[in-house]
Amino acid sequence: MSRVYNFAPGPACLPEEVLKEAAQEMLDYNGSGMSVMEMSHRSQAFEGILAEAQETLGELMGIPDNYQVLFLQGGASTQFAMVPMNLSRIGKADYLVTGSFAKKAMQEAKKYLDVSVVASSEADNFTYVPDVKGLSFRQDADYVHICENNTIYGTRYTALPDTGSIPLAADLSSCILSGPIDVQKYGLIYAGAQKNIGPAGVTLVIIRKDLIQEELPAFVPTMLQYKTHAKENSLYNTPPSYAIYICGKVFQWLKKQGGLKAMGEINQRKAGILYDVLDSSSLFKGTARADSRSLMNVTFVTGDEQLDADFVSGAKKQGLVNIKGHRSVGGMRASIYNAMPIEGVQKLAAYMQAFEKEHAK
Ligand SMILES: *Cc1c(COP(=O)(O)O)cnc(C)c1O
Prior knowledge:
Helices cover about 35% and strands about 15% of the residues. It has helices at about 15-25, 45-60, 75-85, 100-110, 225-230, 240-255, 260-280, 305-315, 340-360, and strands at about 5, 65-70, 90-95, 115-120, 145, 150, 155, 170, 190, 205-210, 285, 295-300, 320, 330-335. The longest helix has 21 residues, at about 260-280.
Protein backbone atom coordinates (compact mmCIF):
# COMPACT_ATOMS: atom_id res chain seq x y z
CA MET A 1 0.00 0.00 0.00
CA SER A 2 1.27 3.45 -0.73
CA ARG A 3 -0.67 6.52 0.20
CA VAL A 4 -0.23 9.80 -1.63
CA TYR A 5 -0.38 13.36 -0.39
CA ASN A 6 -3.80 14.35 -1.68
CA PHE A 7 -4.21 18.09 -2.19
CA ALA A 8 -7.78 17.76 -3.52
CA PRO A 9 -10.22 20.56 -2.68
CA GLY A 10 -13.01 18.16 -1.74
CA PRO A 11 -13.68 15.39 -1.16
CA ALA A 12 -10.32 15.77 0.51
CA CYS A 13 -7.86 13.77 2.54
CA LEU A 14 -8.89 12.46 5.96
CA PRO A 15 -6.64 11.77 8.95
CA GLU A 16 -5.02 8.37 8.42
CA GLU A 17 -5.66 7.49 12.04
CA VAL A 18 -9.40 7.94 11.50
CA LEU A 19 -9.41 5.77 8.39
CA LYS A 20 -7.52 3.01 10.18
CA GLU A 21 -9.90 3.07 13.12
CA ALA A 22 -12.89 2.95 10.80
CA ALA A 23 -11.30 0.02 8.96
CA GLN A 24 -10.85 -1.83 12.22
CA GLU A 25 -14.49 -1.30 13.12
CA MET A 26 -15.81 -1.98 9.64
CA LEU A 27 -17.17 -5.50 10.28
CA ASP A 28 -18.01 -5.20 13.95
CA TYR A 29 -18.66 -1.83 15.55
CA ASN A 30 -18.11 -1.99 19.27
CA GLY A 31 -19.36 -5.53 19.73
CA SER A 32 -22.58 -4.93 17.79
CA GLY A 33 -21.64 -7.58 15.23
CA MET A 34 -22.31 -5.18 12.37
CA SER A 35 -20.89 -2.20 10.54
CA VAL A 36 -22.20 1.28 11.35
CA MET A 37 -23.33 1.27 7.71
CA GLU A 38 -25.70 -1.59 8.46
CA MET A 39 -27.05 -0.19 11.68
CA SER A 40 -30.49 1.29 12.32
CA HIS A 41 -30.33 5.02 12.79
CA ARG A 42 -32.81 4.48 15.63
CA SER A 43 -30.53 2.03 17.45
CA GLN A 44 -28.95 2.89 20.76
CA ALA A 45 -25.52 2.43 19.24
CA PHE A 46 -26.15 4.99 16.53
CA GLU A 47 -27.82 7.43 18.90
CA GLY A 48 -24.63 7.24 20.94
CA ILE A 49 -22.53 7.97 17.85
CA LEU A 50 -24.69 10.99 16.98
CA ALA A 51 -24.75 12.36 20.53
CA GLU A 52 -20.99 12.00 20.87
CA ALA A 53 -20.36 13.72 17.54
CA GLN A 54 -22.58 16.65 18.55
CA GLU A 55 -20.99 16.90 21.96
CA THR A 56 -17.41 16.77 20.72
CA LEU A 57 -18.12 19.36 18.05
CA GLY A 58 -19.76 21.61 20.63
CA GLU A 59 -16.72 21.29 22.84
CA LEU A 60 -14.26 21.93 20.00
CA MET A 61 -16.02 25.01 18.66
CA GLY A 62 -17.38 26.30 21.96
CA ILE A 63 -20.94 26.22 20.64
CA PRO A 64 -23.23 28.02 23.12
CA ASP A 65 -26.45 26.41 24.38
CA ASN A 66 -28.65 28.70 22.31
CA TYR A 67 -27.36 27.11 19.11
CA GLN A 68 -28.30 23.77 17.62
CA VAL A 69 -26.13 21.46 15.53
CA LEU A 70 -27.83 19.71 12.60
CA PHE A 71 -26.47 16.99 10.31
CA LEU A 72 -28.27 17.38 6.99
CA GLN A 73 -27.94 16.18 3.40
CA GLY A 74 -27.83 17.89 0.04
CA GLY A 75 -24.40 19.48 0.39
CA ALA A 76 -23.61 23.12 0.98
CA SER A 77 -25.43 23.85 -2.28
CA THR A 78 -28.78 22.92 -0.71
CA GLN A 79 -28.05 25.49 2.01
CA PHE A 80 -27.94 28.14 -0.72
CA ALA A 81 -31.74 27.60 -0.85
CA MET A 82 -32.48 26.62 2.74
CA VAL A 83 -30.93 29.77 4.15
CA PRO A 84 -33.20 32.20 2.26
CA MET A 85 -36.28 30.00 2.63
CA ASN A 86 -35.84 29.65 6.39
CA LEU A 87 -34.32 32.94 7.50
CA SER A 88 -36.67 35.18 5.54
CA ARG A 89 -39.03 37.29 7.61
CA ILE A 90 -39.68 40.41 5.57
CA GLY A 91 -37.98 39.03 2.46
CA LYS A 92 -34.72 40.96 2.16
CA ALA A 93 -31.12 39.76 2.40
CA ASP A 94 -27.70 41.29 1.77
CA TYR A 95 -24.94 39.25 0.12
CA LEU A 96 -21.20 39.65 -0.27
CA VAL A 97 -20.00 38.06 -3.49
CA THR A 98 -16.40 36.88 -3.20
CA GLY A 99 -16.31 33.78 -5.37
CA SER A 100 -18.40 31.44 -7.43
CA PHE A 101 -19.98 29.67 -4.43
CA ALA A 102 -20.88 33.02 -2.86
CA LYS A 103 -22.37 34.03 -6.20
CA LYS A 104 -24.37 30.82 -6.53
CA ALA A 105 -25.72 31.35 -3.02
CA MET A 106 -26.73 34.90 -3.94
CA GLN A 107 -28.39 33.79 -7.18
CA GLU A 108 -30.35 31.09 -5.39
CA ALA A 109 -31.55 33.56 -2.75
CA LYS A 110 -32.78 35.83 -5.55
CA LYS A 111 -35.40 33.23 -6.40
CA TYR A 112 -37.07 33.91 -3.08
CA LEU A 113 -35.92 37.27 -1.75
CA ASP A 114 -35.10 40.84 -2.54
CA VAL A 115 -31.31 40.52 -2.62
CA SER A 116 -28.78 43.31 -2.45
CA VAL A 117 -25.11 42.70 -3.27
CA VAL A 118 -23.28 44.96 -0.84
CA ALA A 119 -19.77 44.10 -2.03
CA SER A 120 -18.24 42.04 -4.82
CA SER A 121 -14.76 41.23 -6.06
CA GLU A 122 -15.98 39.67 -9.28
CA ALA A 123 -14.56 42.43 -11.48
CA ASP A 124 -11.09 41.29 -10.38
CA ASN A 125 -11.84 37.60 -10.87
CA PHE A 126 -12.35 37.17 -7.11
CA THR A 127 -8.67 37.63 -6.29
CA TYR A 128 -9.46 39.30 -2.97
CA VAL A 129 -12.05 39.70 -0.26
CA PRO A 130 -13.36 43.26 0.06
CA ASP A 131 -12.53 45.25 3.18
CA VAL A 132 -15.48 44.75 5.51
CA LYS A 133 -14.86 47.94 7.45
CA GLY A 134 -17.30 50.61 6.43
CA LEU A 135 -19.70 48.27 4.66
CA SER A 136 -23.29 49.15 5.34
CA PHE A 137 -26.26 46.84 5.30
CA ARG A 138 -29.95 47.42 4.91
CA GLN A 139 -31.14 47.75 8.46
CA ASP A 140 -34.26 45.72 7.74
CA ALA A 141 -32.38 42.87 6.01
CA ASP A 142 -33.29 39.42 7.36
CA TYR A 143 -29.65 38.34 7.24
CA VAL A 144 -26.26 39.01 5.67
CA HIS A 145 -24.56 36.14 3.81
CA ILE A 146 -20.86 35.56 3.33
CA CYS A 147 -18.67 32.71 2.10
CA GLU A 148 -15.80 32.83 4.54
CA ASN A 149 -13.18 30.90 2.59
CA ASN A 150 -13.32 30.94 -1.19
CA THR A 151 -12.16 27.46 -2.09
CA ILE A 152 -11.61 28.06 -5.79
CA TYR A 153 -9.79 31.38 -5.54
CA GLY A 154 -7.77 30.77 -2.37
CA THR A 155 -9.06 33.79 -0.48
CA ARG A 156 -10.61 34.28 2.93
CA TYR A 157 -12.00 36.86 5.28
CA THR A 158 -9.57 37.87 8.01
CA ALA A 159 -12.31 39.82 9.79
CA LEU A 160 -16.07 39.40 9.84
CA PRO A 161 -18.38 42.20 8.73
CA ASP A 162 -20.05 43.96 11.63
CA THR A 163 -23.72 43.34 10.88
CA GLY A 164 -25.00 44.66 14.20
CA SER A 165 -28.26 42.95 15.06
CA ILE A 166 -28.68 41.46 11.58
CA PRO A 167 -27.87 37.73 11.69
CA LEU A 168 -24.76 36.69 9.78
CA ALA A 169 -25.20 33.50 7.71
CA ALA A 170 -21.89 32.03 6.63
CA ASP A 171 -20.70 29.27 4.33
CA LEU A 172 -17.69 27.74 6.12
CA SER A 173 -17.45 24.66 3.90
CA SER A 174 -13.73 24.98 3.30
CA CYS A 175 -12.54 26.54 6.56
CA ILE A 176 -14.68 25.18 9.38
CA LEU A 177 -12.55 23.75 12.22
CA SER A 178 -9.37 25.26 10.74
CA GLY A 179 -8.97 27.46 13.80
CA PRO A 180 -10.98 28.92 16.66
CA ILE A 181 -14.00 31.09 15.85
CA ASP A 182 -16.56 32.91 17.97
CA VAL A 183 -19.79 31.09 17.10
CA GLN A 184 -21.84 33.85 18.73
CA LYS A 185 -20.86 36.21 15.93
CA TYR A 186 -22.91 34.08 13.54
CA GLY A 187 -26.62 33.48 13.25
CA LEU A 188 -26.05 30.43 11.11
CA ILE A 189 -23.02 28.48 9.94
CA TYR A 190 -23.11 25.77 7.31
CA ALA A 191 -20.47 23.52 5.80
CA GLY A 192 -20.38 20.55 3.47
CA ALA A 193 -18.36 17.93 5.35
CA GLN A 194 -16.19 16.74 2.48
CA LYS A 195 -13.53 19.45 2.75
CA ASN A 196 -12.45 19.91 6.32
CA ILE A 197 -14.65 17.54 8.31
CA GLY A 198 -15.35 14.10 6.91
CA PRO A 199 -16.81 12.24 3.94
CA ALA A 200 -19.19 13.68 1.36
CA GLY A 201 -22.87 13.21 2.09
CA VAL A 202 -23.37 15.16 5.27
CA THR A 203 -23.72 18.91 5.70
CA LEU A 204 -23.25 20.56 9.04
CA VAL A 205 -25.53 23.40 10.11
CA ILE A 206 -25.07 25.35 13.33
CA ILE A 207 -28.05 27.62 13.86
CA ARG A 208 -29.02 30.06 16.61
CA LYS A 209 -32.24 28.63 17.99
CA ASP A 210 -34.27 31.84 17.74
CA LEU A 211 -33.71 31.79 13.96
CA ILE A 212 -35.52 28.46 13.60
CA GLN A 213 -38.92 29.68 12.45
CA GLU A 214 -42.13 27.84 13.21
CA GLU A 215 -44.20 29.54 10.54
CA LEU A 216 -42.83 29.16 7.04
CA PRO A 217 -44.49 29.68 3.67
CA ALA A 218 -46.36 26.59 2.46
CA PHE A 219 -44.03 26.11 -0.51
CA VAL A 220 -41.02 25.27 1.69
CA PRO A 221 -40.65 21.47 1.57
CA THR A 222 -40.73 19.71 4.92
CA MET A 223 -37.22 18.36 4.33
CA LEU A 224 -35.91 21.88 3.67
CA GLN A 225 -37.16 23.35 6.93
CA TYR A 226 -34.65 23.69 9.73
CA LYS A 227 -37.44 23.18 12.25
CA THR A 228 -38.11 19.68 10.90
CA HIS A 229 -34.57 18.56 11.61
CA ALA A 230 -34.13 20.62 14.78
CA LYS A 231 -37.21 19.09 16.41
CA GLU A 232 -36.10 15.55 15.60
CA ASN A 233 -32.41 16.08 16.42
CA SER A 234 -31.38 15.29 12.80
CA LEU A 235 -33.35 12.03 12.92
CA TYR A 236 -36.51 13.10 11.11
CA ASN A 237 -35.61 10.65 8.37
CA THR A 238 -32.58 8.45 7.78
CA PRO A 239 -29.52 10.64 8.24
CA PRO A 240 -26.19 9.98 6.46
CA SER A 241 -25.26 7.76 9.37
CA TYR A 242 -21.89 6.44 8.26
CA ALA A 243 -20.69 9.92 7.29
CA ILE A 244 -21.75 11.24 10.71
CA TYR A 245 -19.80 8.41 12.37
CA ILE A 246 -16.63 9.39 10.50
CA CYS A 247 -17.17 13.07 11.34
CA GLY A 248 -17.37 12.09 15.01
CA LYS A 249 -14.02 10.36 14.69
CA VAL A 250 -12.50 13.43 13.04
CA PHE A 251 -13.80 15.59 15.92
CA GLN A 252 -12.09 13.23 18.38
CA TRP A 253 -8.92 13.38 16.33
CA LEU A 254 -9.01 17.20 16.40
CA LYS A 255 -9.35 17.10 20.17
CA LYS A 256 -6.27 14.89 20.36
CA GLN A 257 -4.33 17.35 18.22
CA GLY A 258 -4.96 19.98 20.87
CA GLY A 259 -8.24 21.44 19.63
CA LEU A 260 -8.88 24.33 17.27
CA LYS A 261 -6.34 26.74 18.74
CA ALA A 262 -3.59 24.21 18.06
CA MET A 263 -5.02 23.49 14.60
CA GLY A 264 -5.06 27.22 13.84
CA GLU A 265 -1.37 27.45 14.66
CA ILE A 266 -0.51 24.38 12.59
CA ASN A 267 -2.53 25.72 9.67
CA GLN A 268 -0.72 29.09 9.85
CA ARG A 269 2.58 27.23 9.71
CA LYS A 270 1.53 24.98 6.84
CA ALA A 271 0.20 27.81 4.70
CA GLY A 272 3.22 29.95 5.63
CA ILE A 273 5.57 27.35 4.14
CA LEU A 274 3.89 27.60 0.74
CA TYR A 275 3.38 31.38 0.76
CA ASP A 276 7.06 31.85 1.68
CA VAL A 277 8.03 29.81 -1.37
CA LEU A 278 5.68 31.89 -3.54
CA ASP A 279 6.96 35.19 -2.16
CA SER A 280 10.58 34.33 -2.83
CA SER A 281 9.95 32.77 -6.22
CA SER A 282 10.61 34.32 -9.59
CA LEU A 283 8.70 31.54 -11.35
CA PHE A 284 5.55 31.00 -9.26
CA LYS A 285 3.06 33.70 -8.45
CA GLY A 286 0.25 33.50 -5.93
CA THR A 287 -3.09 34.45 -7.46
CA ALA A 288 -4.76 35.73 -4.27
CA ARG A 289 -4.04 39.22 -3.01
CA ALA A 290 -1.68 38.96 -0.02
CA ASP A 291 -4.15 40.41 2.49
CA SER A 292 -6.83 37.88 1.51
CA ARG A 293 -4.79 34.69 1.38
CA SER A 294 -6.52 31.50 2.43
CA LEU A 295 -4.89 29.13 4.91
CA MET A 296 -6.74 26.20 3.33
CA ASN A 297 -6.42 26.62 -0.44
CA VAL A 298 -3.18 28.01 -1.85
CA THR A 299 -3.56 29.09 -5.47
CA PHE A 300 -0.66 29.89 -7.79
CA VAL A 301 0.44 29.97 -11.42
CA THR A 302 3.66 30.12 -13.41
CA GLY A 303 2.09 32.29 -16.07
CA ASP A 304 2.73 29.61 -18.67
CA GLU A 305 0.06 26.98 -19.19
CA GLN A 306 2.47 24.35 -20.44
CA LEU A 307 4.74 24.84 -17.44
CA ASP A 308 1.71 24.59 -15.14
CA ALA A 309 0.79 21.29 -16.74
CA ASP A 310 4.37 20.03 -16.42
CA PHE A 311 4.41 21.03 -12.78
CA VAL A 312 1.17 19.18 -12.07
CA SER A 313 2.27 16.00 -13.82
CA GLY A 314 5.72 16.09 -12.20
CA ALA A 315 4.09 16.51 -8.80
CA LYS A 316 1.93 13.49 -9.40
CA LYS A 317 4.99 11.37 -10.06
CA GLN A 318 6.20 12.30 -6.59
CA GLY A 319 2.93 11.34 -4.95
CA LEU A 320 1.67 14.92 -4.69
CA VAL A 321 -1.73 14.61 -6.33
CA ASN A 322 -4.72 16.79 -7.22
CA ILE A 323 -2.96 20.14 -7.32
CA LYS A 324 -4.42 21.29 -10.62
CA GLY A 325 -6.33 24.54 -10.15
CA HIS A 326 -10.06 24.88 -10.69
CA ARG A 327 -10.96 25.13 -14.36
CA SER A 328 -12.16 28.72 -13.92
CA VAL A 329 -8.80 29.90 -12.58
CA GLY A 330 -6.25 27.50 -14.07
CA GLY A 331 -2.78 27.03 -12.63
CA MET A 332 -2.40 25.19 -9.36
CA ARG A 333 -4.26 24.90 -6.10
CA ALA A 334 -2.92 23.08 -3.07
CA SER A 335 -5.73 22.39 -0.62
CA ILE A 336 -4.12 21.89 2.75
CA TYR A 337 -6.98 21.19 5.13
CA ASN A 338 -6.54 19.96 8.70
CA ALA A 339 -5.85 16.38 7.64
CA MET A 340 -2.93 17.28 5.33
CA PRO A 341 0.22 16.51 7.31
CA ILE A 342 2.90 19.18 7.44
CA GLU A 343 5.24 16.66 5.76
CA GLY A 344 3.04 16.80 2.65
CA VAL A 345 3.30 20.58 2.57
CA GLN A 346 7.07 20.45 3.07
CA LYS A 347 7.40 17.94 0.25
CA LEU A 348 5.36 20.17 -2.06
CA ALA A 349 7.46 23.20 -1.12
CA ALA A 350 10.67 21.28 -1.85
CA TYR A 351 9.27 20.13 -5.20
CA MET A 352 8.33 23.72 -6.10
CA GLN A 353 11.85 24.90 -5.37
CA ALA A 354 13.41 22.05 -7.34
CA PHE A 355 11.06 22.72 -10.26
CA GLU A 356 11.98 26.40 -10.22
CA LYS A 357 15.70 25.63 -10.26
CA GLU A 358 15.22 23.26 -13.17
CA HIS A 359 13.28 25.88 -15.13
CA ALA A 360 15.31 28.96 -14.21
CA LYS A 361 15.74 31.20 -17.19
C1 LIG B 1 -17.42 22.92 -2.09
C2 LIG B 1 -18.12 24.13 -1.65
C3 LIG B 1 -19.50 24.31 -1.83
C4 LIG B 1 -20.35 23.29 -2.51
O1 LIG B 1 -20.49 22.21 -1.68
P1 LIG B 1 -21.41 20.94 -2.05
O2 LIG B 1 -21.39 20.20 -0.76
O3 LIG B 1 -20.73 20.25 -3.18
O4 LIG B 1 -22.75 21.45 -2.41
C5 LIG B 1 -20.07 25.48 -1.36
N1 LIG B 1 -19.35 26.42 -0.75
C6 LIG B 1 -18.02 26.30 -0.57
C7 LIG B 1 -17.26 27.38 0.11
C8 LIG B 1 -17.36 25.16 -1.01
O5 LIG B 1 -16.04 25.03 -0.85
